[in-house]
């Protein structure tokens, strides 16, 4: 075979080989750290976890118990320890992560966290945090987890998960989306009580200052609001910062090696237990 | 002095091509064309490695073709990253060994290098005044990282009229970036494996 025809064959084969490798979903062939392509098993995790939750329903009137934590960002060693500990907890229905799943808003990080948390015996659900919205994280989070604002009912409790990371949108007056939140708070979807979960609390400098007052007011006006739960601060607390009857709960980060076991019942009764791991 | 040295290296690079097999040269010795110092020695096309889905570049080889410096521009379509990204990058690499496995085939079994990239058109890269100073410690758009790789080169006959040597290489690079490595370094109890940090680039490089 002449060298020239060999050369031509190489030229023809190269793009084909690259195409085949790209299409075969070779994970390593990453176009950018912002590349949000992941295998199907790492997409729509919110929907998939809600389906698991639905498959294991809670009888009406039953007390609900769940684990509350936040800020898993870059704490993979701790994530393993957390999973081991949570898997020892009896009678819990799911685990909530109050945002900042990732540190850099990258698909690989969200996938790494899922690879840990999918080993839980219960499903887990997330709300978006400011770190998840860095770079192209906004699109990546939606591909891997799902909607930035969503709600679900489990047993007698409605959970409203809302994006409150106003600074990531340069305080554009749209986040939190009050037009979405208010009807959510007004409609119980058949539940008896409500829990609102977000990442940035309204009394934080990273919350849109134009919306903190109307946001807190909307929560104050909500009937049977058991808890308002946040992350972001890497410091656990339970209190009423506005002295308005609304209890705000803040989670530790995974790095603090504690989580909360939260029990809710009645119209708005709750008990919170801190667990070290 | 430094610029003199650099010019010397640049001039030396084209003068030391892989020698073509004697029987492929035409009977009349081709005139040696003196190249302009800025003329690139190779062009490349690659995918992956965090530098784009389709990435093209030009580069220079120095020190007997043992050091390559490449400048690349890459593209990632919107459907793969949430926004259409332009990625500009520079790569510097060193390939100390070469094996002539056949008359016209050379293998560079080991390449070590590093890159810097800048990504254009990310969705939220921080507007002026959006964040207080040092709010995030890392840059959204600037990445750098190491890689190792290898290269298989087909030594084509030189262009008869000018004696310009030609080579066509396939290369691969296994690399990572500053953020993946930072994630690994903060989890020393096995929370992440090295394999989870890796990216792969595949490309072709044509010397002319």
From TrEMBL, chain A:
Q: This protein is called what? A: 3',5'-cyclic AMP phosphodiesterase CpdA
- Which Pfam families does UniProt cross-reference here? Metallophos
Q: What GO molecular-function term can you cite, just one?
A: hydrolase activity
Which SUPFAM superfamilies does the annotation name? Answer: Metallo-dependent phosphatases (SSF56300)
Calcineurin-like phosphoesterase domain boundaries: 64-234
Q: Which PANTHER family match?
A: METALLOPHOSPHOESTERASE, CALCINEURIN SUPERFAMILY, SERINE_THREONINE-PROTEIN PHOSPHATASE CPPED1
Top-rank taxon:
Bacteria
Q: Which InterPro entries match?
A: Calcineurin-like_PHP (IPR004843), Metallo-depent_PP-like (IPR029052), STPP_CPPED1 (IPR051918)
Give the organism, scientific name.
Hymenobacter arizonensis (Siccationidurans arizonensis)
TrEMBL record, chain B:
Could you list this entry's UniProt keywords, alphabetically sorted: Signal
Q: Which domain of life is it from?
A: Bacteria
The residue range of the signal peptide is 1-18
Q: What is this protein called?
A: Outer membrane protein beta-barrel domain-containing protein
């Amino acid at each position: 075979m002449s060298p020239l025809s060999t050369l031509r064959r190489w030229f023809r084969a190269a793009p084909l080989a690259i195409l085949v490798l790209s299409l075969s979903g070779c994970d390593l062939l990453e176009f950018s750290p912002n590349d949000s392509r992941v295998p199907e098993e790492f997409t729509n995790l919110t929907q998939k976890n809600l389906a698991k939750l639905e498959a294991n329903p809670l009888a009406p009137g039953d007390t609900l118990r769940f684990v509350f934590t936040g800020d898993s960002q870059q704490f993979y060693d701790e994530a393993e320890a957390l999973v081991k500990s949570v898997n020892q907890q009896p009678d819990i229905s799911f685990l909530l992560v109050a945002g900042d799943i990732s540190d850099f808003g990258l698909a690989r990080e969200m996938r790494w966290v899922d690879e840990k948390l999918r080993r839980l015996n219960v499903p887990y659900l997330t709300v978006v945090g400011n770190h998840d919205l860095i770079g192209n994280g906004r699109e990546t989070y939606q591909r891997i987890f799902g909607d930035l604002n969503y709600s679900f009912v489990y047993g007698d409790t409605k959970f409203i998960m809302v994006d409150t990371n106003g600074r990531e949108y340069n305080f554009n007056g749209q986040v939190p989306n009050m037009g979405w939140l208010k009807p959510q708070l007004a409609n119980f979807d058949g539940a008896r009580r409500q829990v609102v979960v977000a990442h940035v609390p309204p009394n934080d400098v990273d919350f849109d200052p134009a919306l903190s007052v109307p946001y807190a007011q909307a929560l104050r006006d909500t009937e049977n609001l058991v808890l308002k739960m946040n992350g972001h601060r890497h410091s656990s607390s339970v209190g009423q910062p506005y002295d308005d009857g609304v209890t705000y709960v803040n989670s530790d980060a995974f790095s603090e090696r504690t989580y909360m076991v939260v029990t809710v019942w009645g119209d708005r009764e709750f008990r919170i237990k801190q667990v070290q791991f | 002095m430094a610029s003199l040295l650099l010019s010397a290296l640049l001039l030396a690079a084209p003068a030391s091509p892989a020698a073509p097999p004697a029987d492929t040269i035409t009977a009349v010795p081709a005139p040696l064309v003196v190249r302009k110092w800025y003329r690139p020695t190779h062009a490349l096309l690659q995918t992956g490695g965090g530098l784009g889905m389709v990435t093209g570049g030009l580069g220079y080889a120095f020190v007997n073709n043992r050091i390559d410096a490449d400048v690349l521009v890459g593209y990632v379509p919107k459907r793969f990253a949430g926004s259409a990204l332009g990625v500009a990058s520079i790569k510097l690499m060193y390939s100390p060994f070469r094996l002539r496995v056949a008359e016209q085939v050379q293998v560079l079994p080991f390449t070590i290098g590093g890159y810097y990239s800048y990504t254009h058109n990310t969705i939220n890269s921080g507007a002026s005044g959006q964040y207080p100073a040092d709010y995030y410690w890392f840059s959204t758009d600037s990445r750098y990282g190491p890689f190792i790789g290898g290269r298989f080169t087909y030594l084509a006959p030189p262009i008869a009229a000018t004696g310009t040597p030609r080579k066509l290489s396939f290369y691969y690079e296994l690399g990572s970036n500053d953020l993946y490595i930072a994630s690994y370094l903060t989890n020393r109890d096995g929370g992440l494996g090295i394999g989870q940090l890796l990216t792969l680039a595949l490309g072709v490089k044509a010397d002319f």
